Amino acid sequence: MPGERREAMVTLLFRLASVVFALLLTALVLVLVQAPPLEAFRLILKGAFGSPKKVADIFVIWIPLLLTSAGLLLTFHAGLWNIGIEGQIVLGAVFATGVLRYLQDTTIAPTLALILAFVAAALGGMIWALLSGVLKVYGGVNEIFSGLGLDFVAVTLVLYLIFGPWKRPGVGSMSGTEPFPRELWLPTLEKMRLSPWALALALVAWIMVIVLLQRSYFGLRLRAVGRNPRAAYLMMGLSPARLTLLAFAICGVFAGLAGAIQVTAVYHRLIPAISSGYGWLGLLVGMLVNYSPIWIGPVAWFFAMLNLGSIQLPIVLKVDSTLAGVLQGTLVYSFLLGEGIRMKWQQRRREIGESE
Amino acid sequence: MRVELRNIHKHFGPVHANAGITLTFEEGKIHGLLGENGAGKSTLMKILSGFYRPDDGEIYLDGQRVSFHHPADALRQGVGMLHQDPLDFPVMTVLENFMAGSPGGMVPDKRKARKSLKTLGEQFGFHLDPDATVASLTVGERQQLEILRLLWLGARVLIFDEPTTGISAQQKERLFQALRQLASEGRTIIFVTHKLYEVQELCDTAAVLRLGKLMGRRTAPYDLDDLVKLMFGRVLKMERKPAVPLGEPIFRVEDLAVESARVRIRNVYLEVRAGEVIGLAGMEGSGQRYLLRACAGLLRPTSGRVWFRGREMTGRSYLDFYQAGATYLPATRLEEGLLPGLRVADHLVLTRGSRGFFVNERHARDLAQEAIRTFNIRGRPDSMVEALSGGNQQRLLLSLLRPNLSLLFLEHPTRGLDMESTLWVWEQLLERCRQGTAIFFMSSDLDELLNYSDRILVFFAGQVSAPIPAEELDTESLGRLIGGYGFVPVEEAQTMSVGEAAHAR
Amino acid sequence: MDTLLVGLAGVVALSTPVVLATLGEILTERAGVINLALNGTILLSAMTGFAVAVNSGSLLWGFLAGGTVGMTVALLVTFTSLTLGQSQVAVGFVLTLLTRDLSYFLGNPYMGKQGPRLPHWPLPVLQDIPILGPLLFRHDLMVYLSYVVILGMWFWFFYTRPGLILRGLGERPAAAYVRGARVRELRYLYAALGGFLAGLAGPAYSLSVKAGWKGTISGLDGIGWIALALTIFGGWHPLRGALGAYLFGLLQWLSLVLQPQLKDIPSQVLQVAPFPTMILLLLFVNIGNTEWMQRTLAGLPPEVRRLVERALRALQVSPPAALGKVFREE
């Protein structure tokens, strides 16, 4: 129908407008700190695309971000705000580190050690996520608060490990634990930090979530529980408790794997900021894609590009690298704003159309 | 105060809810406003009380043209409305509710308000504890509070929207008395209802609306058939449940008890046979919902045993009951029954169970098409449920019930429906009975309970009676029972002889 | 004894920003609006308040700037959710992240700078009351302001005419509407006021309790979430909410004081203690509402059941019924 196509055009226009609006707002913020906005945007692009290695680094950020976003989309569809995702990444990293530390002194084959580390990481993330789930289902504690509390606990656990039992020979420092021997690093492309194995894992997770959410009964049930747990229970005989826990568990597995990748492919050790804030960023990605699993790929990639591009900003422009966060946050906010205005506008148009 | 409505029009989207209504309400009289759901009577009254603004038309009070921008505006000029579900604050006390919204300084004078509440209440025989929370009151008492509040604020025109739903026979008697008293003091009373016998009993005049238009105006005494024709354009009657041959016993509870801070339901023994209908009667909040939920496994009974289709289900959860062929249909459709944001087809797929891992889109559409056809739902398989109208949502909800259900639990199956839809819903339900489904339903409509139940459980103040065959009751005796007169809780009844129990009833 | 008193007086001072933020949120939520952006709001207002005070040399301007930041964020949340119909949780969450990043980004030039600090101002006469004097009345103006806010809000909620309507707004807006309330306008108003109070919490740190701006290591990240949890724990009651905030301050102080004594427990564990405590508190006040708990209770013998039920009910809180729901007049 031409009407539907028109509506789609309007939607697209509003989304473009919100991107422009976000850029303008960010430019305004830059002006506030007396930095040239255009120059800053140019530097971000240069920082992200300046060399093949940099482009590869975008993917290094994209991989864990895609994993967390994919997991979060399941919890979003189940109507959950899985703020505990940061902690789940961290626990994955801790479990992976623990296994590798234990196995590095044995004669086990490195490949097997890595596989075990990934399995343990998945388990760690899942346990942390299930804690939130159990607290919600059996304790009535809103997942936002339990997740947030558990995030802090997880970060503290890492600090404790780095300065306590797992400290470097001599004295513990913020630089993290002792790096693993090279054979326990996840193989990467030559002279780059990008691991094809990790990339494959993230792509599989992405496709899995697309299939689950768009085609499967499981996805439909998850949406049912997310939209109205009471009706899903009474009319459809679904168990909101079980589906909630399942959504948390799968998301925790994905987050744990992201943590394992951070440890085995990127840093090769446990560091305090091992999650790199990808959990929070994943939540923003989830909000921006508006429940659509296909879009998490490109959006996460764009966010990864911004993150990478802004790393050089403090050195060149003397502004803080949190500019990426400001831009990402502004984007999501103006997206919500744009959606709100669009719906109001279309509703008004419909009303006028009807009374004529 | 004389109220005049002239040529009132109101549109909601494509619906012409009020299409040029002109009506006068004289003071000192009780005026009935009759009509089915969707006839436009609520809209008209909401316009008169300042909730809505008319698209066109004028309102005159004592010959003065007025226009309201806010319900408080209308009240200030003397028009107050009592809504069907009283608009009050359940968590606050009676006195706080009484004072909220009253004009005056920053700090209200509690003592004065308390005194006014008491004196006003005494005039009408309403005895309300000013310090009780409103949540602990019955619907009837909450109405009384609202009436007093509106009078205190100077209302001279009082609109009552279906005030007799959910209140006991005694409370209804007292309400009618109060209305007569108010009218005799020179106030204008507008009584909105769809129950003819109430109009006959109470109202001096009756205006009938249908499809947004005024169909006619009559004065007492009325010719009932005439009123019915004005309302429906034809004669409709609620028929008693036809005799359905009852099948095997399929559901049994023994010595069931549900206890909490509010209810003390004990010693429930009940055996239900396929095709049987059990009605749960009682004022809102008397405990009927607790028993209904306990029987469905939604609440765990504190003691007793439950069998369903030959299997012991004591302490099992609702999901086990659901698997075994029971479904619980909640009263609020969109809130507890449907999934906003999902399509009609999704709903059918979810209730019809799934084969395999992937959703078969063609199968889903076929299911939806069939439901749309059989249940006369105005919508498409990929319509979102929140876009359907209320009546279509109700029909969709019924279409979602699986075929071959053994047991159906219903909260207020026809609340808010007009006569025609009510009859349609029960047609569907009775068809299920014929196929062997047993039904438990709670309702506050006495006629519905009497006409469709085989046996009735009466609830009063958190306690339950023994099951009573519906033939042994009529509107009057059932109305008295739910008000507590002659009510005998089952635990005491068992210690009495049969004769005594019959006498007490 | 004196050291204990000094310590407890420190707790009162340290808790003040949390009290302000919690009460601000209680006011907002009573009107039916959830402002989930509290955490970022406190950071941004702390930074802004500090920056303005440094530049203008005026503490007053600093506090006003902080409050204005809080108010602006709250109004953005309200506009985007009430007027534009977007999810309050989503909007609040995005804004909490955005304001946090903004505070770090814009605050970069002020990192570690010297700035003004709110002077102590013991109240004459009152400061000489034994025990209470040194505990409550030898502080700075913000602390006294928080007392006024606690008592004032309590009085406003339960003893005034507009307070009655305010409680109704979050409970049943339609009923407030027929009683003459302009629901949307009032919700905007209370959200703005609540936001302003929460915005004062920022400068209450950066110009008083933890003077200065230290970016990510200011130790303020997380406070807003604690305040949101305390709103629930306090059952949306100003006195109980304030009590929760003081208990939280006490806990923080204890972990500092006890650290030398408890050598076996690593210091990190004590620092993070408030967060599991927050979860536990929420568990206590909410577990009675869960279906699982009710099923379990029904299976217990009557005497035990009644006992547990009573205990749970004493703790239990329930939110304003219309919290987060949009109300349309007409």
Please describe the topology of this protein.
The complex is a heterotrimer of chains A (356), B (505) and C (330).
Chain A: H1 2-32, H2 37-49, H3 52-77, H4 85-103, H5 110-139, H6 143-163, H7 196-215, H8 217-227, H9 229-234, H10 240-267, H11 278-289, H12 296-309, H13 313-317, H14 323-355
Chain B: E1 3-12, E2 15-25, E3 30-34, H1 41-48, E4 56-61, E5 64-66, H2 71-76, E6 79-82, H3 94-99, H4 110-124, H5 139-152, E7 157-161, H6 169-184, E8 188-193, H7 196-202, E9 205-210, E10 213-219, H8 224-232, E11 249-259, E12 264-273, E13 277-281, H9 288-295, E14 303-308, E15 311-312, H10 318-323, E16 326-329, H11 333-336, H12 344-351, H13 361-374, H14 390-400, E17 407-411, H15 419-434, E18 438-442, H16 446-452, E19 455-460, E20 463-464, E21 468-469, H17 475-482, H18 490-493, H19 498-504
Parallel strand pairs in B: 3-8, 3-9, 6-7, 7-8, 13-18, 13-19, 16-17, 17-18
Antiparallel strand pairs in B: 1-2, 1-4, 4-5, 9-10, 11-12, 11-14, 14-15, 19-20, 19-21
Chain C: H1 2-30, H2 38-56, H3 59-83, H4 88-107, H5 132-136, H6 141-159, H7 161-171, H8 173-178, H9 183-209, H10 223-233, H11 238-258, H12 267-272, H13 274-286, H14 291-298, H15 302-315
Helix pairs in contact in C: 1-6, 1-9, 1-10, 1-11, 2-3, 2-4, 2-9, 2-10, 3-4, 3-9, 6-7, 10-11, 10-13
Brief sketch in words of this structure:
The complex is a heterotrimer of chains A (356), B (505) and C (330). Chain B has helices at 41-48, 71-76, 94-99, 110-124, 139-152, 169-184, 196-202, 224-232, 288-295, 318-323, 333-336, 344-351, 361-374, 390-400, 419-434, 446-452, 475-482, 490-493, 498-504; strands at residues 3-12, 15-25, 30-34, 56-61, 64-66, 79-82, 157-161, 188-193, 205-210, 213-219, 249-259, 264-273, 277-281, 303-308, 311-312, 326-329, 407-411, 438-442, 455-460, 463-464, 468-469.
